[in-house]
Amino acid sequence: MVKLFWVTIVIGLVFIKWVDAYHINETELSILEAHEGYSFSNLVNQPRMVGITLIQSAAAKGAVCLDGTLPAYHLDRGYGSGANSWLVNLEGGGWCNNVRTCVYRKTTRRGSSNFMEKAIPFTGIMSNNAQQNPDFFNWNRVKIRYCDGASFTGDSEDRAARLHFRGQRIWLAAIEELMSKGMRFAKQALLSGCSAGGLATILHCDEFRALLPRTTRVKCLSDAGLFLNVVDVAGGRTLGNFFNGVVTLQGAQKNLPRACANHLDPASCFFPENVISGIRTPLFILNTAYDSWQIQSSLAPPADDPRGYWHDCRLNHAKCTGSQMQFLQGFRNHMLNVVRGFSRSNQNGLFINSCFAHCQSERPDTWFADNSPVIGNKAIALAVGDWYFDRAAVKDIDCPYPCDNTCHHLVFR
């Protein structure tokens, strides 16, 4: 059996074992999300381990991590038909919304390159294996590490706390470095990311398009980045308040999409639902209708559930009561309303499956395995490939839970 190890930046190590579902030890979930990492000791085809590269030119531009160290990326060179195609992946890993959480983040790989792995496995959409990643396996594939805490948008500092909020500068420094590595000659390019990286993909999509030659085919893929500003179980807006803290603390206001910022407050423009209608570049939204992270950290966080009414449901969808499932169906309905106008555009793509999960493009079991989740018998990898290469229109929305038996649900304990 494949064992998947997820590392959480908040508490420590959390382990998932694939049996009939994924089981995760319960932690005190905060707004900072878990990061997906893997161990593949039992796989026949080991994933390629790709070494880290520090961006040496970044310091002079003030493009540094929270603690002032150099930002970094991992690049696996393309070859053959993919030699002039580029897949740029923005790493996810939560946010920090106040000095205390950002200071803590400095002591992790989410805030300092001193703590980043020297090599990481490239899996799912990042894989170099044609059987596991048929459309992008031989592209230049690069993961830009995430060490700012504001989805690559901040541009400020807190001298007293020695915090550098330079996400926007990191983004630009990384892209400039990749241009010098050959991306300026790209014939095809795809910007992607999962979770906080999926949000960053949406926020930077048009900017990515503008930085590349007009002749380049440029598209964007956001995985689990469709964060919704919905009312939580206590009647408040947990995520809205949190995002307001992130944007204000890190000075992200001036770097959010102008089409949104011209008529809405900055925190609202950190929510994809207020941004996607104004994006001009082709965008694919991959999301679960019952996103596990959003359920646990913004819909029913422990702080808003002092009596523990949502405790069991939050950790295991099979333990939800009828009224709780009705509440979660309302979340799904809100998501579908958000993407209704977006999906009318011929250039956009959509894959919303009815799973209790979070992030599916970088996991080998959900991207393109024999038992990967499907909608209409089409796996996520094929749906994304059909959309990117204009082989077919992809506007796939699953029927409501519990109709889909191909899901890889996450079950926490």
UniProtKB/TrEMBL annotation:
Q: Name one GO biological process term.
A: cell wall organization
**UniProt keyword Signal, yes or no:** yes
- Signal peptide segment: 1-21
EC number in record: 3.1.1.-
Give the UniProt entry's GO cellular component terms.
plant-type cell wall
Organism domain of life: Eukaryota
User: So where does this one cross the membrane?
Assistant: none
| Key word Cell inner membrane present | no
**Protein's name according to its UniProt entry:** Pectin acetylesterase
Which keywords, in A-to-Z order, does the entry hold?
A: Cell wall, Cell wall biogenesis/degradation, Hydrolase, Secreted, Signal
**Protein's cellular compartments:** Secreted, Cell wall
Similarity field: Belongs to the pectinacetylesterase family.
- Report the GO molecular function annotations: pectin acetylesterase activity
Q: What does this protein do?
A: Hydrolyzes acetyl esters in homogalacturonan regions of pectin. In type I primary cell wall, galacturonic acid residues of pectin can be acetylated at the O-2 and O-3 positions. Decreasing the degree of acetylation of pectin gels in vitro alters their physical properties.
The principal localisation class reads secreted
Q: Which organism is it from?
A: Pisum sativum (Garden pea)
Matching InterPro entries, A to Z? Answer: PAE/NOTUM (IPR004963)
